[in-house]
Amino acid sequence: QEEFSYVQKYKEDWKSAPYPPVFVTVDSVVVQSGHILLIERAGNPGKGLLALPGGFLDQTERMLDGAIRELREETQLKVPAPVLLGSLKDQHIFDAPNRSVRGRTVTQAFYFKLKDMPEGLPKVKGTDDARHAKWYSLASLKPTEMFEDHYSIIQHFTNI
């Protein structure tokens, strides 16, 4: 009920725009040692569901910069920028017209495959729009616990 009301208000707020809005978001698929970095959404839509770190693109930034900004804001991932950029393996646009309950939302997802490290997975902490940030085994993911089409995005890059 709470989420339904949120989405209805969201759509009502954009009703007076001269054209139907198209929202642009960015997401990061960060994988290391068979694990993926996910957040638990703190707010609607999708409150409590697992999601890729990401969000809306700022007006003045490039997509990769926005993805890294959102990744750091939501997870506090402590990987140096050169290492993160060096681990970028792929990117893809996900633009199915009904992929989001909020309306037409196009996302550019970036796939980062971090090298296995003897010290294990980097430390993370959920902040900003994330209630929690945590590494999950790719084999343990369940589509029913994921936000919108994020499971499909993960499948695209990882072949799980």
Distance between the termini: 33 Å
- Structural class call reads alpha+beta
Number-wise, the strands total 7
| Element pattern in H and E | HEEEEHHEEEH
Which percent range fits the helix content?
Answer: 25-40%
What is the strand and helix layout of this fold?
Layout: H1 2-13, E1 23-32, E2 35-41, E3 50-51, E4 54-56, H2 63-75, H3 81-86, E5 88-94, E6 105-113, E7 130-137, H4 150-158
Parallel strand pairs: 1-6
Antiparallel strand pairs: 1-2, 1-4, 2-3, 2-7, 5-6
Structure commentary:
- By secondary structure, this protein is an alpha+beta fold.
- The chain has helices at residues 2-13, 63-75, 81-86, 150-158, and strands at 23-32, 35-41, 50-51, 54-56, 88-94, 105-113, 130-137.
- Strands 1, 2, 3, 4, 5, 6 and 7 form a 7-stranded mixed sheet that branches.
- Helices cover 25% and strands 29% of the residues.
- It is globular.
- β2 and β3 form a beta hairpin.
Question: What labels would you give this structure?
Answer:
29% strand; 160 residues; seven-stranded mixed β-sheet
Describe what is shown at a glance.
With 160 residues, this protein is of the alpha+beta class.
